[in-house]
Every structure is written in C-alpha cells, then in structure tokens.
Amino acid sequence: MKNILSMSQLSNQEVYDLIDSAIEFKSGKKSSIGLDKFAINLFFENSTRTKSSFQVAEMKLGMKEIEFEAATSSTTKGESLYDTIKTEESIGASVAIIRHPEDEYYKDLVNNHNLKIHIINGGDGTGQHPSQSLLDLMTIYEHFGSFDGLKVGIIGDLSHSRVAHSNAEILTRLGAKVYFGGLDAWYTSEFAEMGPQMDVDDLCKEMDVVMLLRVQHERLSAEENENFSKEDYFKKYGLNRNRVDLMKDSAMIMHPAPVNRGAEIADDVVECDKSYIFPQMANGVFMRMAMIAAVLEGENSDNEIVNKKRQVILR
C-alpha cells in the first residue's frame, strides 16, 4: 500500500486491516516505524481535526513534521503541486498528507513515476476523505462489531460532502444499508443509486446510525447562501432532542465536524448520550496512525524485496 487516496482504492480486507491496526494502537500498541522519518502536511484548505490529528499521529509514530503553510509557500509564486511535493521529497519527507480544493488532485501525482514519497489524501474538493471515512468505520465497528445489515442515515449537504461520497460507497460495500435526508437538490442520482431519500423523522426512528453533515456554505453559490435560512433548515432537517428521543436505544449520532450548532444539530444534542462526535475525533488519531504505518510498512516490504534481489545477484 504505497498511497491511500480514496475508499474505492481499498479492498474490504484492507479496510478491516486498517480498523484492526487502529484499534491495536488505541489499546496501547507502540511502533517506532516513523523514527528518523519526516512527514509534511500540505493543507490548501482550512482544517482543525484532520491536520491536528495527523500531526499527533505522526508524533506518536516517532516522525518529525516539516512545517508548511500554503499562504507562505512557493505555490503563491506559481509553483506546481508536483514541484512542491518533489521538493519536500528531495529534502527528506517520506509521507505527504495533502488536502486540496481540486477533485482528484492526486491522479497526475501518482501516475508520475518520478515521485517516491507516500501520499495520503486528507480530502480532495468534493470528492473523497478516506481518513474521515475510516475513522467513522472504526467508531461504528467498535459499537456494533459488524456493518452487515446496519441502517445508516446520512443527512445534510450530500452533493458537496467528500465524507458523504466516501462513507456511502464503503458502507454499502461492507453490507450496510444507506439512506439519505436533506434538501432534494443535494440528493443527486449518484446517491439515489445507493439508497433512498427519507423524511428525517422516519430516518431517526429506523436508523442504527444517524450521520449529520455540515452545510458547506463555502461551496454554495451566492444565491444559494442568500436564500439559506439556518432556522428553516434546522426545523426541517436538524437533529433536535425530540428527534433523538425517536432513535433506538443503541443508535449512534455521528458528525465529521466542524459542527454548526443550531443548524444541523442542536446544542444540547452534540454531547448527549447517543452522540459519538468527540469519540470519532479521538479515534481519528489512531486511524491516522494506522494509515501512516500501512504506507511505511509497504515501503519496508518493497525495500526487503529489493535487498533480496540484490543478494541473489551478488551470489
């Protein structure tokens, strides 16, 4: 596993292996795989949870971080993403965590055989967010022990959410049944192929997992933002205490955050007994440790194969 770019890239077995590895790290497993290695976190969009938890994961694995700020980098002078990453590779970075506004920014990078650095996708445009999806899967798996037959309702700004794209795809593949809620305009044909749209009250009654999404105002048009009413949205689609009371006793409330309290979720629901929002964040460190370790272990395996071939030639 040289790179981790999208959920479609990962087999079901690789997903389960990453979950197992993350749970082992959470249980106290130690690893020195990152000693004497450097990581670079190239975030071209704002981030709190993803960037911070990758930084903590890197430190727990013994890695050192090369500081990078997009606003003060040479990308402001016209340097390409490839040249930026090749530069960081040349000065010693082993792993690059990249968040970029362009969908599938990584395609040209991984097709360029001159790059040896490992790339982990920290989110691409409205495309994929594999580390968030994997930590969500870890959190669900810890609670239910399986995905088969689970009913998962995803409510919110579906069409602009890389979390929705990643989670809907992999949950369906792992045997869960996915349902959707929110504005009709956000329920595109892509999601219709994976599951039906339902009223939010009905979703709350039937789902094992209720997954809320932030309205991504930065990706909406000026007209859409002008016509948006936080109060109306919350009334129609937001998770309030009354809707929580409709949920099964064993049901989970999830949210990738940042949370807009009073928009998609009520303030008093964020940390209620059914909420796993902050446990998700805690699991993010362990899952990101598992992801980094996986690409570095792949590098070690490749080196072992090369060394064995060299030994054969020398003999």
Automatic annotation (TrEMBL):
Organism: Companilactobacillus nuruki
Aspartate/ornithine carbamoyltransferase carbamoyl-P binding domain segment(s): 2-142
Function as written in the Swiss-Prot or TrEMBL entry: Catalyzes the condensation of carbamoyl phosphate and aspartate to form carbamoyl aspartate and inorganic phosphate, the committed step in the de novo pyrimidine nucleotide biosynthesis pathway.
Protein name (record): Aspartate carbamoyltransferase
Record InterPro entries: Asp/Orn_carbamoyltranf_P-bd (IPR006132), Asp/Orn_carbamoylTrfase (IPR006130), Asp/Orn_carbamoylTrfase_sf (IPR036901), Asp_carbamoyltransf (IPR002082), Asp_carbamoyltransf_Asp/Orn-bd (IPR006131)
EC number(s) stated in the UniProt entry for this protein: 2.1.3.2
Family: Belongs to the aspartate/ornithine carbamoyltransferase superfamily. ATCase family.
Reactions mediated catalytically: carbamoyl phosphate + L-aspartate = N-carbamoyl-L-aspartate + phosphate + H(+)
Annotated positions binding carbamoyl phosphate: 49-50, 99, 129, 132, 257-258
Binding-site residues for L-aspartate, renumbered to this chain: 77, 162, 214
Keyword hit for Transferase: yes
